[in-house]
Amino acid sequence: LLREELGYSTQEELLEQFEGGLLKRVAAASLGVVFRGTIKESGEVVAIKIQRPDMEKRLSLDLFLLQCYGKTMDAICDVLTEQIAYHEACISAFAEGSYMELDYEHEATNQLRFKREFEKRRCNVFVPNVMGNFTTRRVICTQWVDGVKLVDAPSDEIQRLIPVGVEIFLTQLLDIGAFHSDPHPANLYVTTDGRLCLLDFGLCAEIDQKARRAMTAAIVNLLQGDFHSLIAEDAKALGFLPQDMDVTELKPILTKILTEGLLESG
Hints:
Layout: H1 2-6, H2 11-15, E1 24-28, E2 32-38, E3 45-51, H3 55-80, H4 87-102, H5 104-120, E4 125-126, E5 139-143, E6 147-149, H6 155-176, E7 178-180, E8 188-191, E9 196-198, E10 204-206, H7 209-224, H8 227-237, H9 250-264
Parallel strand pairs: 4-9
Antiparallel strand pairs: 1-2, 2-3, 3-5, 6-8, 7-10, 8-9
Helix pairs in contact: 3-4, 7-8, 8-9
C-alpha cells in the first residue's frame, strides 16, 4: 500500500528512499500501522502511519449497520417514549468524524495548521512537522518524536505540565477557534527535553466566534461565581438549554451542584 500510494513501481525502488532499506513497525494505530524509518536524502528520522488495507470498505460496512440500528432505535423511541430521537443523528456525526480520520491528507493539513497557530502564539507545546512528499490520503509521514506518553511520565512532570495542557486547550477553544478532538493518552507525549507534545490530528473540530464568546463568558462567570448569568444566559447561548426555558426552578439545583464542584476542585 505504501508503494502504491507513493507511486513507486517496485518494492526495491521504494525502500531505496530509506537508510538501510528498512522500515521498522513500532505501533498500531486505530485505523493504521505506524513505522519508523530514516529518509536517506535528508537523514531525518520519521514516523510513517500507513492505513490498513480495505479500511474504508470495512468501516463503511460497519457504519451502514450502525445507521440501520440507529434508525430502528429512533422508530422504537418515537412509539414507546417521549424522548427526542437522537440515535441516527449521533451515528451520522460519528460517521462524519470517522471518514475524516481516514483522510490522512486532511490530518496533515490540520497538523500543520495547529503547528503554525501554536508557534504564532508562542505556546509551549511541540507539534511534529509533516513531510508532504511522503504523505497521501492513506499515508502520513511526520517528524519522529522521542519521548514517553504523558501518563507514563513521573508524577512531578505531569503536575508541571498540567497548566501547559490547560493553556493550550483554552487557546484552541477560545482563540484559535478549532481544537484537537482526540487527546487520549497515546496522543499526548512528553519529549526528551520536557515539552508537551500533541500527536494525531485526524479528528479536529471548528468553533465559531459566537460559541467562543459564549464559552469565554461562561468560564468568567463560573470563576466569579455568577451562577445566575451562567445558567440564565450562558447555558442558553451555548445551546445546553432552550432559549425560551424558564430557569427559575433549575437555578437553585444547578447552583448547588456547581458550588459543590468548585469547592471539591479546590
